[in-house]
Amino acid sequence: MKTIHFIGAGPGDPELLTVKGRRLIDEADIIIYAGSLVNPQVLSGARQEAQIYDSARMTLQEVVEVMRAGVQAGKQVVRVHTGDPSVFGAHREQMAELDKLGIPYDVVPGVSSFLAAAASLKREYTLPGVSQTVILTRMEGRTPVPELEEIGSLAAHQATMILFLSVSQIGILCQRLRQGGYPADTPAAVVYKASWEDEQIVAGTLEDLAEKVEKAGIRRTALVTVGRFLGDRFERSKLYDAAFTHGYREGKVPDTVPGKTGGA
Ligand code: SAH
Questions:
Q1: For FRET with 53, which of 34, 197, 229, 256 sits at 20 to 30 Å CA-CA?
Q2: What is the number of the ligand 1 atom nearest to the C-alpha of 195?
């Protein structure tokens, strides 16, 4: 029986697909992809005979049925998710069904949209002296969010926060972030279609972002990023500090700062 491959298609730019992901897509007999978000160009190298299904129109049971029938007919099946499947990808429920059927699968990671957004913004999420924590979350919509992860309580940390699936509620979102603990002047930016040709960035603060985003008409396929990582104040890293010694480099002034750092 052939192994089904779950593949992260990346954020949009078809070149932001792993070499492995591309090869597996190009070799596949059956491709099931999330048509609402995956750039169709990611499938441009698919074999002419490949059967292609858009999962946007399918239920979980229908997707699993295509996988089962394909594998039983000896076909190579790939399931293509946007960004990386582990972030709001809904691939866990598919893997659970495949487990029940005894069908083997593996996962090829992809470039998540939150990573493409940092690249577009030309910012680092984990700045020394600013934030060493990144929270990936969403506002509740039709899918609820556990009570302990309510936006306000996460905001209390004033960490770097990336909100998926939430831009359509930008007004209430910014309000809750402020109520929860971020000061009104906290920088915030929306990245629409990161890495696509029609990418757009709207930047502001928690005070004025909602208005700007509404004016720009952005209602979907966007991330809301929040935190002082967007600002210009930060400390230099210890990793490249001449006075700091670690496993790969002797410090110039070895006695001043002890220990190792965790960066790369
Ligand atoms: N697994 C995906 C996320 C799927 S949930 C990933 O790793 O990126 C879908 C949400 O992801 C969208 O509502 C939007 O918030 C975000 N998203 C996906 N692609 C995006 C892109 N290119 N630019 C900005 N946001 C994107």
A1: 197
A2: 22
Asked if residue 252 has pLDDT above 70, the reply is no
Ligand 1 mean position, distance from CA 243 (Å): 40
Task: Specify the DSSP element, H or E, that contains 189.
Answer: strand 187-192
Q: Residue 115: its pLDDT value, please? A: 98
Q: Are the CB atoms for 127 and 236 separated by under 8 Å?
A: no
Pocket of ligand 1 (CB under 6 A): 11-12, 37, 81-84, 87-89, 112-113, 116-117, 164-165, 191, 193-196, 221-223
Quick one: residue 102, left, alpha or beta (phi over 0 = left, psi -120 to 50 = alpha)?
A: left
Dist. CA 7–CA 9, nearest whole Å:
6
Residue closest by Cα to atom 4 of ligand 1: 88
* Number of Cβ atoms within 10 Å of the Cβ of 243: 12
Q: What is the pLDDT of residues 85-98, one digit of tens each?
A: 999 999 999 999 99
Both ends of the chain: CA-CA distance in Å?
40
CA distances from 163 to 71, 103, 168 (A): 36, 34, 11
Digit-coded pLDDT (tens) for 31-70: 999 998 999 999 999 999 999 999 999 999 999 999 999 9
pLDDT digit string, tens, across residues 118-170: 999 999 999 999 999 999 999 998 899 999 999 999 999 999 999 999 999 99
DSSP 53: E
Average pLDDT, the chain: 94
The residue type found at 215 is: K
